[in-house]
Amino acid sequence: MTERIVGIKTPIKLEYTYTPGLASSRYLNGVARGKLIGQRCPECSKVYVPARGCCPACGVTLGEEVEVAQSGTITTFCVVNLPFYQAIKPPYVCASILLDGADMALFHLIQEVPAEEVRMGMRVEAVWVEPGELGPTMESIRYFRPTGEPDADYDSYKEHL
Amino acid sequence: MRDVAVVSFAQMPSVRREAQRNEVEMIGPVVQSAIERSGIGRKEIGFTVSGSSDYLAGQPFSFVMALDAVGAWPPIRESHVEMDGAWALYEAWVRLQHGDINSALVYAFGKSSPGSVRDLMALQLDPYCVAPLWPDAISLAALQARALLDRGDYSERDFAEVASRGRAAARDNPNSQVTGGADIDALLGEPYVASPLRRHACPPISDGAAAVVLAAEDTARRVCERPAWIRGIDHRIEPAALGVRDLTSSPSAELAAANAGVADGGVDVAELHAPFAHQELILRDALGLADGVAINPSGGALTANPLMVAGLIRIGEAAQRLIDGDATRAAAHATSGPCLQQNLVCVMETKQ
Amino acid sequence: MPNSSDSEAGVLSAPHVLEYPYTRSVGPIIGHFLGGLLERKLFGIRRPDGSVLVPPAEYDPDTGEALTDLIEVGQAGVVTTWTWIAEPRPNQPLARPFAWALIQLDGADSALLHAVDAGDEANMHTGMRVRVRWRDETAGEIGDIVCFEPEAAP
């Protein structure tokens, strides 16, 4: 009697040479110089950070480059209690951060503060790697940490949640 | 049935490697151009649908990112097919039959340059007994080409003639990628890539994007002087296993062509999506095209073959000839899967 | 656009590897075929019209009717079409030049795709007979067939 096979392994490995495109390259090259570069939509005037190819609301090519501040406001956050990455010891906080001058929040880590003290409206700033270690990668920003400023008013970021 | 027409078409020139722009940056200008040419406001478009493949992009759910290029706010009605954009156009045509909307945007994008497209097409095959062997796309087409030669009706010279004619036509098409070297004897002197296919009988690797705007009835008449009215459109598929098919004919293309009404009145022009030279010969027979029909005046997929886009380009190129007044009745064809497994035929007319 | 030319010169690129460690359930029909490979047997499945599909299909390609009648077929057959690969691609069955072929095994009515180790393109022709070459240690997967090889002249 022929044995019946139940399952097989069919692993696949695909290799690409990937380009993030003009806008993301502009952003990442800015990061490599310690700057946060966004782009403004010519139609709705919103500033997108990171810069991206088109305004996702208007469907038009983004225009003017805008450098935004390296500090901003936590609009929302979560506390991670499971170890996804060995490099960071839980519990830690991932937050949506609205940089001053931007209309789109970006995601990053919050450190130098106990997880239970992180809150919506908290003011934070970027902590960069040493100048010699800067590169075109989001890892050039180690994390964001509280600035100690008073919390931002809810109305100032409620449109960006 | 509601009358639905192609009212505008735009494409980016196909290139071997678009090293600068990502997919969104490729699509954005093409979509903006198609919408602008349509005369329909972007916010008026009733339905948006795209065709693409995540494996090409190397990015799962890449079509979601691509939405940046169309501006999905306020929220739009949207759909996507993991297929050539010609099938997205079919979905848009069906959607327009509902009667509650009057226009649709169809777009397609394919960037093959980042990966090894010849190999990764194996992933569309039976994952148990075929894909683990990693047969590449050119080899499978070559099996079909050999079977066609063995049948005795065509020769390798016929393959070269198809390529030569395509290259000559492509010289007038600024969007094509391969134009040089149309001397048939020189083409026949090329070494085999996978015998009996030589370089000229295989498509180039292309990065590209295209967009079409469809409009129904009065909307089409309002925005376009000579809309390319879709008179019939159908698509058919054959079994996946190559070994159960007769590779020398295309029953699915034949049936789709009959249902789309290719034979119900002569066509002036036919755009056939034949990535390999011998496939044009099979398709010409399947569609029953008469000798006088201008086949692939754009140069065809042998001169520019952005995957997931080249079928939609066939419909767009054929429609553009009607819109421009250069033809009155056209057939456009798109294919998908190995060895012409799946085929779509669309017949368009200028006649009201 | 400000600085666009400067920025364009600095478009980034990076290697990107996508790996999927798929494990697939194969179902009873393919499972039987793969189980056959384990013991160096080839199975097909009989359709209501009497014809035999190799590899077996779960459902009739014409009617969609469920197929169940698995039968053993021959280990040699006829090349129905082929192509010569002078430069094999990564992951393909053989690292030296070989032919891909559709092979109709004795007792089968459909053809199976596999490699033929013929040494030279001049040794290939449609209609030639080929025989399976088994892997030393079978595992119940299509790779248990290393390739086919031309059958010795009778």
Q: How would you sum up this structure, described in words?
A:
The complex is a heterotrimer of chains A (161), B (352) and C (154). Chain A has 161 residues and is mostly beta strands. Chain A folds into two domains: 19-68, no CATH class; 69-161, OB fold (Dihydrolipoamide Acetyltransferase, E2P), CATH 2.40.50. Chain A contains one helix and ten strands. Chain A is globular and about 75 Å long. The model of chain A has no long low-confidence stretch (mean pLDDT 94). Chain B has a domain at 4-116 and 205-228: Peroxisomal Thiolase, Chain A, domain 1, CATH 3.40.47.10. Helix content of chain B is 34%, strand content 20%. Chain B is built from twelve helices and twelve strands. Chain B has helices at residues 23-38, 54-57, 62-66, 85-97, 117-120, 137-151, 156-170, 184-188, 217-223, 251-260, 277-287, 310-323, and strands spanning 4-11, 47-51, 78-81, 103-111, 192-194, 197-198, 207-216, 228-237, 269-271, 294-295, 329-336, 342-349. In chain B, strands 3-2-4-7-1-8-12-11-9-10 form a ten-stranded mixed beta sheet, sandwiched between helices. A two-stranded antiparallel ribbon of chain B has the order 5-6. The longest helix of chain B is centred in the N-terminal third of the chain and has 16 residues, at 23-38. The longest helix of chain C has 12 residues, at 27-38. Chain C is 12% helix and 37% strand. Chain C has a five-stranded antiparallel beta sheet with strand order 8-7-6-9-10, with no helix packed on it. A three-stranded antiparallel beta sheet of chain C has the order 4-3-5, with helices on one face. Chain C starts with a helix and ends with a strand. Chain C has two helices and ten strands, in the order αββαββββββββ. Chains in contact: A-B, A-C, B-C. The interface between A and C is medium-sized, with 30 and 36 residues. Strand 1 of chain A pairs antiparallel with strand 2 (23-25) of chain C.
